[in-house]
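Format notes (please read before filing issues)

Several people have asked whether sequences and structure tokens are stored in separate files. They are not. Every record keeps both together, in the order shown below: the sequence lines, then the token lines. Line labels are part of the format and must not be stripped during preprocessing.
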Amino acid sequence: MRKREREKFQKMLLEIRKNVMREIQQDVKEGREGEAGDGRDTYDIASDERDREINLLLGDRERKKLQLVDDALLRVEKGDYGLCDECEGEIAPGRLEAMPFSRLCVTCQSEYEQTQRTMHSDAGPAGSGRYPNSDADDDAS
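Then the structure lines:
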């Protein structure tokens, strides 16, 4: 990958990182604002608790996305950004445009997803696939 392309993707990744951090900070702020129990009834408290649980789930998703972005930025620094973790071939620029933190090329990602579908249909153990850290389940871009 040429230096100009690497710099472009690095800039994209840094922008994604900034946005994810802003979302996480906003979630934390909203969680703190809802802690006062001034005159709320049981239904209000239950509703707030449900909202807090949803925010925690979304927060986990954002933290996972942040980790994927940080990993991609590290690969940019090391010079192996844009290379497939499985076959070591180049990841298509269009794929990187859509998901800058992709770790697998389209072919390897398809194989991974097929393996996952086969495992799930065979009721095999979850998470023991051929590509344990792929970006198949994180369509969070």
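For reference, the curators noted about this record: Residues 109 and 136 are 7 Å apart (CA to CA). The helical segments are 3-33, 42-78, 93-98, 106-121.
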